[in-house]
Design a protein that fits this description.
Shape: flat
InterPro entries: RNA_pol_III_Rpc5, RPC5_C
Number of helices: 28
GO biological process, one term: tRNA transcription by RNA polymerase III
Strand order of the largest sheet: 2-8-5-4-3-9
Radius of gyration: 42 Å
Keywords: Coiled coil
Number of strands: 18
Structural class: alpha+beta
Protein name: RPC5 polymerase
Pfam family, one: RPC5
Distance between the termini: 90 Å
């Protein structure tokens, strides 16, 4: 009250809202104009506008008679832009830069808070602005001058060319047919910058008439800035409370709201979360937490939430695993998305994650190598699946992160039964997709199926192991004596059976067997990749019968031949990788699962007509020894065998060669000049 007494009201002004120029009134902001430019020279001024884009171009006259105007510079600019010829297309018909073009840009995206005000006879009349445009000089005439300069240079360079030379410049063109555009590709194209620029360029200019400040038409239009009627019926917007009036006059800025710092995507505001529908709350919580007991979910949703409604909603976004809720794969990997690691589509990721979830319904432990072998996904994707719902244990595998929720299973047997039926359907789909073996389908024996697992400390485990060892000491002693007696009897019989024993012949050298550990999960329960129950011949001391050896050699030779006919040049590392992929595609029990060493693979490569290329790689290379061994197909039976052999000999002398050296060497050795396309084909 004291402040109001110190600042008394001097005058009250009536405010009126003018509607005549609503959505028609623009505010133009001009730059500081030079003294030689005038806005009142109507005869030399034109304007045009693109209404949808709110883009304006004004062409204003420059006073060339002003002492501040540099005439020589104006003539030089006009000469550079138009050249010596003067016609209708010339920018400066007077051979002098006598005008300047201004282009507009939007000064503010939201102009609803701005208005033009006129004060007259104690009344303030407001007209809302439809746009605020800033006018800046346009220098497109410089682009035109550069284009003229390039045309003149091209004409001077091409003046002496003949018709024969023009025919020599004929270039080969490739005709391509466009494929049907998908909806996703069309949306990307519509949202691209190039498409928006094209749409803006397609809008036609609307030419305007300019009227000076003292023109009678301007005087007439200015009258529309005043409210045409002072009755209350026309100004109902101003019959508001003071707070409402201020809100209309100064609405909250959208830009200011957007400038507020955003919270991280994995941080949830519980107050904001509880304003959403129940289904959305549960979906957001499960998507962020991924694995949650039902009791924790109810506590996060707040008191008073109906548990029946929660159960109905959670089954739409999660599946039951060991009494706990795990978010569904299609919630984490929506349709039309892909893996950030490998680019695999969402459908394949969902199948792989469903397999991991299904494995945890069978056992508390999952082996990462087995998941990778079955799903054929990259290690990063498999690790993401496992980290969503389990914890890594050293030398054991991945354990489900939450204990078995026995309370929920006992309270909601109907939900458990329904989820069991869902898992049966998922299992049937996984069997078809991954061709799962019986070893994968049979659940392992575990105490967790009868009772939830207990958490035991390390000291308790040691004490339990000691007690168990004491109990089993007597049994172990008896077993040891029995084995000792059997060994004595075996030694006695071995003297008579020495001629029948076949000793395994190992190759001399430091060759290691090929690492096919990535595919061990495919052969669980198999002997050398063969089912013993299928009547396959068992190896004796590591050797296969003669017929099996021949079949292995034939299969290996067929693989090597077909691979080198496609690739021509391969390192040993890449060949082993392709061979492992080939093994993964074979059915269980195939002869190639008998074990292929590196030496056997290299010998087969040399037997199929390939040669090892001793490429002199630099000593400081970081490549592995297998990557330094390069093999190439020496004769493919095509017309490029000779060229290919010359090229391989070149690379046996240097690991990096220039293209012109290769082309000259090929021409010299083969006795013919090869064109660019033929050299490219040989190099490829």
């Amino acid at each position: 009250m004291a402040n109001e007494e110190d600042d008394p009201i001097i005058q009250e002004i009536d405010v009126f809202l003018a509607r005549s120029l609503l959505e028609k009134l623009y505010l133009f902001q001009y730059p500081i104009r030079p003294a030689s430019m005038t806005y009142d020279d109507v005869t030399h001024l034109s304007a045009k506008i693109k209404p949808k884009q709110q883009k304006v171009e004004l062409e204003m006259a420059i006073d060339t008679l002003n002492p501040n105007y540099c005439r020589s510079k104006g003539e030089q600019i006009a000469l550079n832009v138009d050249g010596t010829c003067t016609d209708e297309t010339s920018t400066y018909s007077s051979k002098l830069m006598d005008k300047q073009t201004f282009c507009s840009s939007q000064a503010a995206s939201n102009v609803s808070r701005y208005a033009a005000a006129v004060y007259k006879k104690g009344e303030l009349h407001l007209t809302p602005l439809h746009g605020i445009l800033q006018l800046r000089p346009s220098f497109t005439y410089l682009d035109k001058a550069d284009a003229k300069h390039r045309e003149r240079e091209a004409a001077n360079e091409g003046g002496d060319s003949s018709q024969d030379e023009a025919e020599d410049d004929v270039k080969q063109i490739t005709v391509r047919f466009s494929r049907p555009e998908t909806e996703q590709a069309r949306q990307r194209r519509v949202q691209s910058y190039e498409f928006l620029q094209k749409r803006q360029a397609e809008e036609h200019w609307v030419h305007l008439h300019y009227y000076g400040l003292k023109d009678s038409r301007s005087e007439h239009e200015r009258q529309y800035l005043f409210s045409q009627g002072h009755g209350l019926a026309e100004n109902t917007e101003l019959i508001k409370s003071p707070s409402e009036y201020l809100m209309m006059l100064m609405p909250p800025s959208v830009e200011e709201e957007n400038d507020k710092p955003m919270a991280p995507s994995n941080v949830l505001s519980m107050a904001q979360l509880r304003t959403l529908p129940l289904a959305d709350q549960i979906k957001i919580l499960m998507k962020n937490v991924k694995v949650m007991p039902f009791a924790n979910l109810m506590s996060l949703l707040g008191s008073g939430t109906d548990s029946t409604a929660v159960l109905r909603c959670v089954q739409q976004v999660a599946l039951l695993v060991q009494g706990n809720w795990v978010v569904k794969s299609d919630v984490l990997y929506p349709k039309d998305t892909s893996s950030p690691h490998s680019g695999v589509p969402a459908e394949v990721l969902c199948r792989g994650r469903d397999f991991v979830m299904w494995k945890f319904t069978q056992d508390r432990w999952v082996v990462r190598k087995e998941v990778a072998a079955v799903t054929k996904l990259c290690p990063e994707d498999v690790k993401d699946f496992l980290e969503h719902m389990s914890v890594a244990r050293i030398n054991k595998g991945w354990e489900f992160m939450l204990p078995y929720d026995e309370d929920f299973v006992k309270k909601h047997p109907d939900i458990v039964q329904r989820q069991h039926m869902l898992w049966m359907g998922i299992q049937a789909k996984l069997e078809k997709v991954y061709n799962l073996l019986k070893e994968h389908l049979a659940p392992k024996k575990q105490e967790a199926q009868s009772a939830h697992p207990l958490l035991v400390s390390g000291e308790q485990r040691v004490n339990m192991a000691k007690a168990k060892a004491k109990q089993n000491y007597g049994q172990l002693e008896k077993e040891f004596q029995r084995q000792k007696a059997e060994m004595k009897s075996n030694d006695a019989s071995a003297k008579t059976d020495v001629p029948n024993i076949r000793i395994k012949e190992e190759p001399v050298g430091a060759e290691e067997p090929m690492d096919t550990s990535a595919f061990e999960g495919l052969n669980n329960g198999l002997v050398n990749g063969l089912h013993p129950a299928e009547g396959s011949p068992e190896p004796v001391n590591g050797h296969l019968p003669g017929g099996c050896i021949d079949r292995v050699a034939q299969e290996l030779k067929a693989f090597v031949s077909s691979t080198f006919k496609k690739q021509f040049v391969l390192t040993l590392s890449e060949l082993k990788r392709l061979f492992n992929l080939h093994l993964a595609s074979l059915p269980p029990g195939h002869t190639l699962f008998s074990g292929i060493s590196d030496k056997m693979l290299q010998d087969m490569v040399l037997d199929t007509g390939c040669k090892q290329i001793l490429v002199p790689f630099p000593p400081q290379t970081a490549a592995s020894p297998d990557e330094l061994k390069v093999y190439a197909l020496w004769e493919a039976g095509d017309t490029y065998d000779q060229h290919r052999q010359v090229l391989l000999e070149i690379f046996s002398r240097n690991y990096r060669v220039r293209r012109n050296v290769i082309q000259s060497q090929l021409s010299q050795e083969c006795g013919e000049d090869l064109n660019k396309q033929e050299v490219d084909r040989v190099l490829k």
